[in-house]
C-alpha cells in the first residue's frame, strides 16, 4: 500500500484556518494530503472507481465550506472521513467481501472498523467520530473484530492502494475556486446532510443525540410514574387506576369477556358446597308464580349448587377466567358477588335447571401497575347455600 505520511493535528488546524480564510492554495494542499486516503476508503465501501471519485470530489468541496465549523479544528481528519462515509452510505455499498478475504467472516460494521483502525490509523475518538457512535461502542466493535480475525493487520497493510484518477485533482481545484461555481458548491455542501453539535457530519446509520436523550428521558419519566403508582397502591390497595392512552395505542379497558382469549388456570371440580352462614346478598325465590286461573303445579324440587373451580389464580398478565355453575337434583336460583372492585362478573344471578350449567366470565381489572392481591367471590344458592371461590393475582406492570 502507499506510504502515507503521519497525521499532524497542528497541520490540520492550519488547513482549517486556511479554508476559513478562503485561501485558494489551501484546497490544493488539502487534496495532496488526503486524496489518496479518502479514495482508498471510498473504494473499499463502494468498489466503484467513478462513484469513489465523485465522493472524494464532493467531500473536499464540502470541507471548504463547512469544516471550519468544527469545534476542535484539530479533528479535520475524522471530519473528512465522516463526510466521505456519509456520502458513501447514501449510495450502494459493497457489503459483500471479496472471495478469499480473511475479513469475510465479519459483518460490514466490524470490517469497516478494522479497515479504518489498521489501514488508516483511525482509532479512539477519531474512529468514534468518523462512524458516529460512542467511543465505548466503537472500541467494543473493534475488539470483537480483532479477536475474530487476529491476522487482519497483515492482510490490510499488504493490500495495494487504488490509483486516484489523474484528472480528479484539477476537478477539485476548479470546482473549489471558480467564482462562477459558488452555487454548485453550495448545492454539494447541502447534500452532505446535517452536522452534529461538534460540527461533525451526522451519519445516517447512527442515532442522533436528541434520540438518545429522548430515550433516557422517557425511561426516567416512566420510572418516576411507576414509583408513584406503587406508593399510592401500597397506601390504598383498592385505589382505582385510571386508563392511560398511549401514543398510537388504545386505552386499557375491561372488554366483554367473550372477546378475550385468556383464561387462568382452573382447579378440579369440588363437591357440593358447604352450608355456611350467608354473607352474600339474599337469594332469589325458587318458586315460580302461576296464574290463578290455572291449577297449582307441584313444587319443583330445589337442587344443589355446584361451583367449579374452588379457586382462581391470575398469573402474569392474565385478566380473564371462567367460573362454571351447575345444578344437581333440581333447579337452582343463584346470585354472586365479589369482595373486591378489581374483580367483576359478567352475570350477577340467574336460574339453572337440573343437570344444567352456566359459565360466568370473571374479569380482573388490571391497571398500569397491579400489585399482588386476593379476593373472594360468594356464590349463593336458592336454599341459602353459599359457596366461596377464592381469587388471587400476581403483580403486573403494563
TrEMBL record:
Keywords: DNA-binding, Sigma factor, Transcription, Transcription regulation. It holds the Pfam family Sigma70_r2. InterPro entries: RNA_pol_sigma-70-like, RNA_pol_sigma70_r2, RNA_pol_sigma_r2. Residues 252-262 have a biased composition (Basic residues). Coiled coil: none annotated. Residues 276-285 have a biased composition (Polar residues). Residues 30-91 form the RNA polymerase sigma-70 region domain. Residues 241-303 are annotated as: Disordered. PANTHER family: RNA POLYMERASE ECF-TYPE SIGMA FACTO (PTHR43133), RNA POLYMERASE SIGMA FACTOR HI_1459-RELATED (PTHR43133:SF8). This is Sigma factor. It comes from Actinoallomurus acaciae.
Amino acid at each position: 500500500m502507499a506510504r502515507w505520511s503521519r497525521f499532524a493535528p497542528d497541520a490540520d488546524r492550519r488547513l482549517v484556518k486556511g479554508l476559513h480564510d478562503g485561501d485558494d492554495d489551501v484546497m490544493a494542499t488539502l487534496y495532496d494530503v488526503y486524496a489518496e486516503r479518502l479514495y482508498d476508503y471510498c473504494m473499499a465501501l463502494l468498489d466503484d472507481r467513478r462513484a469513489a471519485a465523485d465522493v472524494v470530489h464532493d467531500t473536499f468541496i464540502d470541507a471548504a465550506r463547512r469544516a471550519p465549523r468544527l469545534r476542535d479544528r484539530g479533528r479535520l481528519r475524522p471530519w473528512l472521513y465522516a463526510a466521505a462515509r456519509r456520502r458513501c452510505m447514501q449510495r450502494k455499498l459493497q457489503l459483500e467481501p471479496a472471495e478469499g478475504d480473511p475479513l469475510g467472516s465479519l459483518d460490514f460494521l466490524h470490517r469497516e472498523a478494522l479497515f479504518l483502525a489498521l489501514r488508516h490509523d483511525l482509532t479512539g475518538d477519531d474512529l468514534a467520530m468518523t462512524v458516529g457512535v460512542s467511543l465505548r461502542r466503537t472500541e467494543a466493535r473493534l475488539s470483537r473484530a480483532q479477536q475474530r480475525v487476529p491476522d487482519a493487520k497483515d492482510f490490510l497493510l499488504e493490500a495495494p492502494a487504488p490509483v486516484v484518477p489523474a484528472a480528479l485533482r484539477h476537478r477539485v481545484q476548479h470546482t473549489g475556486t471558480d467564482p462562477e461555481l459558488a452555487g454548485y458548491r453550495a448545492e454539494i455542501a447541502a447534500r452532505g446532510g446535517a452536522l452534529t453539535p461538534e460540527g461533525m457530519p451526522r451519519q445516517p446509520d447512527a442515532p442522533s443525540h436528541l434520540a438518545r436523550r429522548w430515550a433516557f428521558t422517557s425511561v426516567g419519566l416512566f420510572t418516576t410514574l411507576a414509583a408513584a403508582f406503587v406508593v399510592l397502591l401500597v397506601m390504598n390497595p383498592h385505589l382505582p387506576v385510571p386508563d392511560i392512552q398511549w401514543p398510537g395505542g388504545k386505552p386499557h379497558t375491561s372488554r366483554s369477556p367473550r372477546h378475550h382469549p385468556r383464561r387462568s388456570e382452573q382447579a378440579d371440580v369440588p363437591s357440593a358446597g358447604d352450608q355456611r352462614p350467608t354473607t352474600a346478598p339474599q337469594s332469589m325465590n325458587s318458586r315460580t308464580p302461576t296464574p290463578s286461573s290455572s291449577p297449582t303445579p307441584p313444587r319443583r324440587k330445589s337442587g344443589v349448587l355446584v361451583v367449579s373451580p374452588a379457586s382462581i389464580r391470575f398469573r402474569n398478565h392474565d385478566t380473564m377466567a371462567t367460573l362454571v355453575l351447575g345444578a344437581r337434583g333440581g333447579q337452582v336460583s343463584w346470585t354472586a358477588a365479589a369482595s373486591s372492585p378489581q374483580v367483576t362478573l359478567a352475570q350477577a344471578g340467574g336460574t339453572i335447571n337440573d343437570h344444567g350449567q352456566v359459565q360466568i366470565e370473571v374479569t380482573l381489572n388490571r391497571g398500569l401497575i397491579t400489585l399482588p392481591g386476593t379476593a373472594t367471590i360468594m356464590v349463593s344458592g336458592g336454599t341459602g347455600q353459599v359457596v366461596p371461590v377464592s381469587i388471587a393475582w400476581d403483580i403486573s406492570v403494563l
